[in-house]
């Protein structure tokens, strides 16, 4: 009897109150279930009577629950009528560009101003365009410089190890003057760490015309880094080796963090390496039917992640492909 009164007294007009009621009386750990469990302790002759009382209680509880739910629904409906449609909406997060895309777009726009066009090519490449045409015949040690992912062997199909393969495709089809940059993803079979990944992004450039000299190469790259990192940046060249250029060089810039004074990023040398470059090897021009006695050219290649690291001080390569929103959110306003 007491329970009946208590249940009847239960009020409330929201769905929360109805749910609370259900849990208290009708839930698997609720009062009614609990009392049902007492059945086994009731003397046999009273079992029938007890059962009757319990059924009544259960029915009452269910009716009450239905009515509480009804009240909640009514309240919800009238609240809907009163809804203020002029309230501002919930904020929607705006996405931003990936730092690699920001840097790529900046690089492309700088070289476009110098008259370079963007060229693209396939990421799955045949041996000829990735190696042989670039003066890296089979068994050439230079192939070991790049740990290659093979898709097929004999004939070899690979994931391109550099975007020089795009330059090969352009030289195949176009006659000088050629002035292109090739941004794109490249793959190398390296153990993933903060400083190496199995893929990264490159931008390579190629300029072939009459009378193209090393001075042109130097001035073009100097203009590029000044636009990218500011007018105060200094450059220096160190001799190097690439099978497709002769002479070859690596270019350093004065450290963007300490301005050349020495810090941990530049390992206290004041300089950081940013790209490889050189004068196009005459044999390459001949490979593509370009008269090497008439034309000369320069080429260069850089990693976008590196440029990005120097610009934004990202110290772990893995961050670029983990898609952690806390990382990506920091790059806003890029075009
Ligand atoms: N292809 C070279 C690499 O991936 C970079 C490069 C391009 C060097 C053009 C010189 C000239 O390492």
From TrEMBL:
GO terms of biological process kind: phenylalanyl-tRNA aminoacylation
Q: Which SUPFAM superfamilies match?
A: Class II aaRS and biotin synthetases, tRNA-binding arm
Q: What is the superkingdom listed in this entry's lineage?
A: Bacteria
One GO cellular component term of this record is: cytoplasm
- Please tell me where Mg(2+) binds in this chain: 246
Q: Which InterPro entries match?
A: aa-tRNA-synth_II, aa-tRNA-synth_II/BPL/LPL, Phe-tRNA-synth_IIc_asu, Phe-tRNA_ligase_II_N, Phe_tRNA_ligase_alpha1_bac, Phenylalanyl-tRNA_Synthase, tRNA-bd_arm
What is the name of the protein in this document? Phenylalanine--tRNA ligase alpha subunit
What organism does this protein naturally occur in?
Answer: Filimonas lacunae
């Amino acid at each position: 009897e007491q329970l009946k009164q208590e249940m009847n007294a239960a009020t409330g007009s929201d769905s929360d109150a109805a749910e609370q009621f259900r849990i208290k009386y009708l839930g698997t750990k609720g009062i009614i279930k609990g009392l049902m469990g007492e059945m086994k302790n009731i003397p046999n002759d009273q079992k029938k009577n007890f059962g009757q009382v319990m059924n009544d209680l259960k029915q009452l509880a269910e009716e009450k629950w239905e009515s509480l739910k009804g009240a909640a629904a009514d309240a919800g409906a009238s609240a809907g009528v009163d809804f203020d449609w002029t309230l501002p909406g919930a904020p929607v997060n705006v996405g931003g560009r990936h730092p690699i895309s920001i840097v790529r777009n900046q690089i492309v726009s700088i070289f476009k101003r110098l008259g370079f066009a963007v060229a693209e090519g396939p990421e799955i490449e045949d041996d000829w365009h990735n190696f042989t045409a670039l003066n890296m015949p089979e068994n050439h040690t230079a192939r070991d410089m790049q740990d290659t992912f093979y898709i097929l062997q004999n004939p070899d199909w690979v994931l391109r190890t550099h975007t020089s393969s795009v330059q090969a495709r352009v030289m195949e089809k176009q006659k000088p003057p050629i002035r292109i940059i090739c941004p794109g993803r490249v793959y190398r079979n390296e153990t993933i760490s903060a400083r190496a990944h199995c893929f990264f992004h490159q931008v390579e450039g190629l300029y072939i015309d009459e009378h193209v000299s090393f001075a042109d190469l130097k001035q073009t790259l100097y203009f590029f880094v000044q636009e990218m990192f500011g007018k105060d940046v200094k450059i220096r060249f160190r001799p190097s080796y690439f099978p497709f250029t002769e002479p070859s060089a690596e270019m350093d810039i004065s450290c963007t963090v300490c301005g050349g004074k020495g810090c941990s990023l530049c390992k206290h040398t004041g300089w950081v390496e940013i790209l490889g470059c050189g004068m196009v090897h005459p044999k390459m021009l001949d490979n593509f039917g370009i008269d090497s006695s008439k034309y000369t050219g320069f080429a260069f290649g850089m990693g976008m992640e590196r440029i990005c690291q120097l610009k934004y001080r990202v110290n772990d390569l893995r961050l670029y492909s983990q898609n952690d929103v806390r990382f990506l959110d920091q790059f806003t306003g890029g075009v």
